[in-house]
């Protein structure tokens, strides 16, 4: 035992003897607010209690939404605002009147692919499935009236106005190469097929309207093949297996 340690022990014993014993100081400190400690909190009216989110959570949500918006991804709401379509081309006679009198050249498909979703009152367009990054062409000549984003499901989309009151919309685009006011032809590239908006796979959602009324694109466009059917596999018999 060192001399310094002996000196400390002796000093401690002397202090204990002179003080008549050690006394522990009460170190309790109340950490509760006074309104709770004094029983005032139970008396507060419930309507005065304000609920809220932490500021960090609010700012994180805002920053995340802005970041996803620039990246082209948007929230999918459970019940998007559906638009019930009024079909202009209801009969074969109306279709026959629309096609020859309205377009100066035959319409084309935006790109190769197959029909994955048909036109209906709750789906005012068709879906043409294809590979990711496939170039998208306008169905005929026109002028770009919109090239923007939609948070309710369309994602990146382009609108093209055509002759005689027709307009076409191309949605779920990955990249957009045109701007508003630009003149385009059927050889122009509007952008690329992507996965933006409400989509389960790479495809182009195509809408066609005439004077603001939705038209079934299948009545105007060239024939689009349906989804490919699975090939029937025939089990081959092993040469060693008895006949």
TrEMBL record:
What the entry lists under Pfam families is as follows:
Peptidase_M23
InterPro entries attached here? Cell_wall_metabolism_enzyme, Dup_hybrid_motif, M23ase_b-sheet_dom
Keyword Nucleus annotated: no
Record keywords: Cell cycle included?
A: no
Q: Which UniProt keywords apply?
A: Membrane, Transmembrane, Transmembrane helix
Ranges that cross the membrane? 57-74
Which residues belong to any copy of the M23ase beta-sheet core domain? Answer: 123-217
Q: Which Gene Ontology terms cover its molecular function?
A: metalloendopeptidase activity
- Taxonomically, the superkingdom here is Bacteria
Segment forming the signal sequence: none
PANTHER family (alphabetical): MUREIN HYDROLASE ACTIVATOR ENVC, PEPTIDASE-RELATED
Spell out the protein name for this chain.
M23ase beta-sheet core domain-containing protein
Organism, scientific name: Candidatus Daviesbacteria bacterium RIFCSPHIGHO2_02_FULL_36_13
